[in-house]
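Why predict the complex rather than its parts? Because the way molecules touch one another can change local conformation, and only a joint prediction can capture that. The input here totals 191 residues.
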Amino acid sequence: SIPTSAVSDADAEQLQKEQHARSVLRERFLRCVLSMTNKNVRFHMHERVKVEATFGASDIDVLNFQVSDLHTPIGVQKEALIRSQDVISFTFDI
Amino acid sequence: MQCRWPLLGPLRWITYVNKHVKVKAGKDEVLWGWLLTVDPVSASLVLMDFKEDGGASVQVVMGHAVEEVQIQQEADEETTDRLQASFLPPKTCGLDP
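Output of the joint prediction:
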């Protein structure tokens, strides 16, 4: 199998700890993404560009965000994909 | 930080959970908040800031943009509970045994 960790196979206990930490962190993140659905999200992008949109979904490896009603400086885009590489941070309220 | 943030790994990231952190991201963005979690896939941080009316604002900082993370403060029990309960559906607990 493909090693997914920096921890060597020899240290099974350490690997288990790492996998446990990974699952706790990932579950919390997925619940957070889930709660963003249909919320107004403000994206901070490179060159101080700030745009707002209604959040739809993220792909599993967090490479793209699907959004609706993206307010750009040149108008509103009904549906859009935002590449996560272009984003520095994003904010929403709960 | 000795090592770039996305390379730290789950066992290091989890030590930042429930801490108030200052994050430098991109060229000139500085953000503060309680660290809820770090996505182990993208190394993105989820920061929370609680408001007085009971609501909260959530900031997600993309892992690739993180330059530096500094711990400012540890959470007290109330803040820890509030953080942990933030995104859990009612009457359901985490998968963690």
